[in-house]
Amino acid sequence: MTRPPTAAQLRVIEAADAVTGRLRGTEAQLAALVRRGLAFRHPRPPHDHFLTPAGHRVREEGAAPAAAPEPDTAAPGHGGVFAARVGGEEADAAASGPARAREVHSAWQGLLELRRMTSPDGSVERPCNWERAHLVRAAALALEAAGHRPAAGTDGAGYRVRATPQPEAVAVREPDAAALRACAATLERAGWQVGEYTEPRSRVRYLLASPRRV
Question: Please, is 188 exposed, middle or buried when counting C-beta atoms within 10 Å of its C-beta (0-12, 13-18, 19+)?
Answer without folding.
Answer: middle
